[in-house]
Amino acid sequence: MRDREEPLETTREAGAPAVELRGIDKRFGAVHASRDVSLAVAPGTIHGIVGENGAGKSTLMSILYGFYRADRGDIRIAGRTVEIAGSEDAIAAGIGMVHQHFMLVDTFTVVENVILGAEGGSLLASGTARARGELERLAREYALEVPPDARVGDLPVGLQQRVEILKALYRGADILILDEPTGTLMPQEADHLFRILRRLRAQGKTVILITHKLREIMAATDRVSVMRGGRMVAHRDTAATTVAELAELMVGRRVLLQVEKGPARPGPELLAVERLSVRDERGASRVRDVSFNVRAGEIVGIAGVAGNGQGELLEALAGLHPAAGGRILLAGEPVSSGGPHRRRRGLAHVPEDRRRMGLVLPFEARESAILGYHDDVRYRRAGLLDWDAVSRDTEAKMISFDVRPADPRRITAAFSGGNQQKLVLAREIERDPLVLLVGQPTRGVDIGAIEFIHRRLVAMRDAGKAILLVSSELDEIMGLSDRILVMFGGVVAGELPADRATERALGLLMAGAGPGAGAANEARRAS
Amino acid sequence: MESLTLLVLVLDSTLRLSAPLVLAALAGLFSERSGIIDIGLEGKMRGAAFAAAAVAAVSGSPWAGLAAGIGTSVLLAMVHGYACITHRGDQVVSGLALNILVSGLTAVLGIAWFAQGGRTPQLPGEARFLPLEWPGAAALRDVPVLGALYGELLSGHNLIVYLAFLAVPAVAWVLYRTRFGLRLRAVGENPESADTAGVPVVGQRYRALLCTGVACGVAGTYLSLAQSAGFINDMTAGKGYIALAALIFGKWRPVPAMLACLLFGFLDAVAIRLQGADLPVIGEVPVQLVQALPYVLTVVLLAGFIGRAVPPRALGVPYVKEG
């Protein structure tokens, strides 16, 4: 797993750190986002920074990249104190940043994106020519091949990320900061990224990797720093630490990383899907002839790279998107009409995108907490909504799902991502449905909350419910599911029982290289 | 021969009528490509037309008039920028407010200064931009076809008409071949990307509005110093909005926007020809109906004949660092 072919920082201990932060302190109003943070990153190493959402990682890197000014503290680059007042200063100091949400102009070509801000003269011709040559060199040196004249918006995410890295290198970055770089990559792309990072390290570049995925820290970094609540709580050599220790440092208590669950005791079939097909608004086929079932007391996971039909499948099952063909049976009875009807028959849905589909962000929590169930008799009094009853009910849900703060009048948008997600889960699970469809239950959610959400899902399974889980996190799929289906190109490319699923086997199926790949590729071409 | 002459005459006036539209559309292109909606093209044109006529009337120099027109339009553009870029105000509201302000101001100042019911004094020829005869145009006049094309269609326009059409390839070149153009498009598509790449978003947008002001000033000056001999109230007659429509119709690209302007200019020219003319079957066409044609076309085209126009992504969105 761990790649030891390149020399580590042991050979480079002489000399000043590539990046040194001393006593960085930053407040935003009442929020103390950075508390006296110090960090030293040795040159030619890959240094990981981990922490939960809101631990201060992004603030710290934004200070280093010139988005914010620190209230106090020094930044030293290669031993010299520097003032970083804006991105220009950071670039001049040799710092490059690959943002979580790519900072690319979609309508520009790769070359245009690379030279933007570093055009090298008021006419583009010479800068463009130079950039092409440089891109070729970088492609050879670091395995960073990208078609230079492609429109960036047309490129897959993995290639867009390479453009971001190329942008930084083109500006002569010696220090590369990557913020959650693997969030949208499939396993093969992530592996390729780590190969690129190792090559960069071998060429003497310094890499700072911000992530919440501890496995990546273990696989790719030389050293790791842990942040919690705005403080730097620990520095470790990666070789001398464990995932469990890092998780404990991040959360401040012991965390169960592996979901504890007994064997499934599947009962009768609650959800059956027969030859379901879905087309998108433009008529392109997104799901083709998909059939499977979910029984009481089991979790069926659907793995796949985003955009291979999982989202459309989920929406079609929930009744948000019409099916182009096929049947859906709920507890043995076919469903015909739309979403509200299905919900009343015991089908609950936690959508993939909680902010866009699961919640109304400007609503109070109690309003978000009754969406879709607002006509329940419990919330009604004399034909009007009984807000006292809604508040009481919401507060009870919030307490039972550990939503913090448990204030039903707080605006939904003011909760953190994890707490928003718990609010959606509370709304859907407390209804005691027969079947729960759940998409990306822990996207953007902290480790502590992930543990909680996973435990609730397993508890629901053990209570004899059927759960269909769609997730792009392989760990989550493998940890929770009793059976795993892999979708590729709109069809089910394979099914594996959880105990026989390995990351490698799933990755192959997800990439369309599994045993059933011929048919899936065929389907993809036809659509 | 008869129909050729007619065609040349219509095309000839098409060029004249399109020229201010082309300039205004290019003006709007700078602003909108940088992410600032410019519904104030109309007001800037009107302000420039008035200032140019007033200064030309007093000084007797068309160049002084042009400078005043450009200055006024740039000033208005900067006010728009101050409201929308610096203070992140609503761009449509700011543009509309400027239009209303200018419409009132030109009337009030015109009456106060010249006491001719809001008009500026009739300008003598030397205070205007007059048609330029190309060499040999007179000699070629009697040569069939070539005479009409060279002598009538190409020769005999004023300086600003030539300037307007030469500006189209120039703007296209700036937009696609220069650093300024690349940064302009970047701040209009994704200002955050531009910012992180070290491009100052605010400065770039102000510079874009400066270009808008200059081009729009020339367009306004054209109306009062070239097309007419003085400022008349309401002489812009919605040309700023039509130019904006042409810009959208042309999907925010210089050459297609120019073609759209030519289409509007052509309709206008036809409308003038059709006034009072007896058409077969239909009979005499009511003037009002003919004059409404360009406006009807605007609505029809924008309503759906052009397919979806994809505007610059950050159009109308104020840039807030770290929102």
Topology:
The complex is a heterodimer of chains A (527) and B (323).
Chain A: E1 19-28, E2 31-41, E3 46-50, H1 57-64, E4 72-77, E5 80-82, H2 87-92, E6 95-98, H3 110-115, H4 124-142, H5 157-170, E7 175-179, H6 187-202, E8 206-210, H7 214-220, E9 223-228, E10 231-237, H8 243-251, E11 269-279, E12 285-295, E13 298-303, H9 310-318, E14 325-330, E15 333-334, H10 339-344, E16 347-350, H11 354-358, H12 365-368, E17 380-381, E18 384-385, H13 387-400, H14 417-429, E19 435-439, H15 447-462, E20 466-470, H16 474-480, E21 483-488, E22 491-497, H17 503-510, H18 517-526
Parallel strand pairs in A: 3-8, 3-9, 6-7, 7-8, 13-20, 13-21, 16-19, 19-20
Antiparallel strand pairs in A: 1-2, 1-4, 4-5, 9-10, 11-12, 11-14, 14-15, 17-18, 21-22
Helix pairs in contact in A: 14-15
Chain B: H1 2-33, H2 41-59, H3 62-86, H4 91-114, H5 137-140, H6 146-154, H7 159-177, H8 179-189, H9 191-196, H10 201-227, H11 239-249, H12 254-274, E1 278-279, E2 283-284, H13 287-305
Antiparallel strand pairs in B: 1-2
Characteristics:
heterodimer, A: 527 residues, alpha/beta, Rossmann fold, 3 domains, 6-stranded mixed sheet, 22 strands, 24% strand, disordered N terminus, B: 323 residues, mainly alpha, ABC transporter involved in vitamin B12 uptake, BtuC, two-stranded antiparallel sheet, 13 helices
Describe the structure.
Chain A is of the alpha/beta class and 527 residues long. Chain A folds into three domains: 9-94 and 174-251, Rossmann fold, CATH 3.40.50; 104-166, no CATH class; 269-346 and 433-526, Rossmann fold (3-Layer(aba) Sandwich). Chain A is built from 18 helices and 22 strands. In chain A, helix 14 packs parallel to helix 15 (447-462). Chain B has one domain: ABC transporter involved in vitamin B12 uptake, BtuC (Orthogonal Bundle), CATH 1.10.3470. Chain B has 13 helices and two strands. The model of chain B has no long low-confidence stretch (mean pLDDT 89). With 323 residues, chain B is mostly helical. The chains are: A alpha/beta (527), B mainly alpha (323). The A-B interface holds A 62, 65, 67-68, 86-88, 91, 97, 99, 103-108, 112-113, 115-119, 121-125, 127, 167 and B 177-183, 185-186, 189-190, 192-199, 313, 321-322.
